Amino acid sequence: MNNTLIPLLVSTIAGLSTLIGATLIFFKVDKNKYNKFITFCLAFSIAIMIGISIFDLIPESFFQYFSVYGISKSIILLIVAFLISYIFITVLSMIIKKETKKEDLYRLGILNMIVLIFHNMPEGIATFLSSYQDLSLGIKLAIAIMLHNIPEGISIAVPIYYATGSKKLAFRNAFISGMAEPLGALLALVFLKNYISEMMISIILIIVAGLMITLSIQELLPESLKYKENKALYLGLASGGVLVLINMLLL
């Protein structure tokens, strides 16, 4: 029993670290600095999402696929993944905008939550399986995941809070995204432990990388530029980039 409980606990702790980022909404920000703060948070999220996708998810998954299927099929997979991502983000954004009738920040928060659910579930599977086979490896992976889950919590909670004024709604959505991690671990435990393959996770993570890059460029970047706070934008991008480097060193 302990052989499965501890890996589940490790995955849960990694997932719930999104709530650490969400606590940023409880810090009082001067009204004159709202635009700078929002710009910084959006830029920080862009750097995290694109950095993790380009330097972590895509290389690892691409070379796993490439080693089996060769360069041509691997490139086709990347193209298809980004095409699916573009269509998914575009359609989902239109649906959310039509259904909620709320401002762009709220739509961004919800989009972030949905995309990061897709991101966190395979991470939960990977954390559980790693911890199940080698606890020290699983803990190391969980720490690296926590480092980028914290800003992911920011990317969900801050836009939703500043769009709605509801701390409860912002915190709840960050919590839902974080819980996708232990949900992935439970799926691995109940259904997938004996069937999941590295190739399957590789394909999922390439699609997830496509979703995060598309979301960053298509939605987050235009919104962050809208406030015309260039210093906050550059500072957010630089801070996110540093955190991505730290994350890479831990993996």
List its salient traits:
globular; mainly alpha; 8 helices; 251 residues
Give the CA-based shape.
globular
Number of domains: 1
Q: What amount of the residues lies in strands?
A: under 5%
Poorly predicted spans = none
Estimated radius of gyration? 18 Å
Can you lay out the helices and strands and say which pair or pack?
Blueprint: H1 2-16, H2 18-22, H3 34-100, H4 104-133, H5 135-164, H6 167-192, H7 198-226, H8 230-250
Task: Give a short summary of the structure.
This protein is mainly alpha-helical. It has 8 helices and no strands. It has one domain (2-15, 34-250).
What this model shows, in words?
- This protein is an all-alpha fold and 251 residues long.
- 89% of the residues lie in helices and 0% in strands.
- The chain contains eight helices and no strands.
- Helix 3 packs across helix 7.
